[in-house]
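Q: My labmate handed me this sequence with no annotations at all. I'd like to see what the chain might look like in three dimensions before we decide whether it's worth expressing. Could you predict it?
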Amino acid sequence: MNYDKERLKAIQQRLGIEADGIFGVGTMSRIEDLLDSAGIGVPDTKPYALTISKAGLEELISSEISSRVYYKRKLQHPIWPGEKSGITIGIGYDIGQQTRNQFSKDWSAAIQEPELSRLSASAGISGEAANQLLVNLRDITISLDSASDIFYTSTLPRYAKKTLKAYPGIELLPADAQAALLSLVYNRGTRMTGASRAEMKTIKPLVANKDLHGIAQQIRAMKRLWDNNASPGLLKRRDNEAKLLENSSRDYTDNELLYV
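A: Here is what I predict for the chain of 260 residues:
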């Protein structure tokens, strides 16, 4: 038994949140809420980038892995999603978008050698070149618990910062809207040059103007990039992100919010 993990689960139960044993955004957000309620020590600068909704985060995760059962059946070994993707592991972690150093920094606590080095060799490689590497990586297994640990403690906070940098003013949008744009950046990255990135670039001034409907329209417009039959999951993801944005101007309870 991992004593620290079990102790953290007991603390999470006392906090009234999911007892997953991961000291991630859910636990930190709940602690921050309790400190705010008690009027204790509000820092001059926020130690987080975005305020997102739990519903939005759940939608992001569902888009990446569908369910725990599906993850175990299809995603616990490295995959190549196709097109311009790289080797992908865990909760939608595309190694092709990372440097070797970043990948090793993110995953060294969850993957041991020599598997860590084998996977790190695919960093920066995408498309068909990545697909050629897959046959020699399929024997590696990454549990959903390990994947979740890395996602909540490392990857998600880093992509929240990327999203804030890409879209200044996003922190002033409703929590569902912030979650939708985080999902978009998590899936597509932050590059805004080239014909395939026209909508990503157009969204930037719309965020600054708090034009939620306009942002939703641009996200739907991205569907031009994917074939209806080959990429139904991506098309559905864009629609769901757009719906989150369009319905984001609502009241939120403290328990619905996560700070990442």
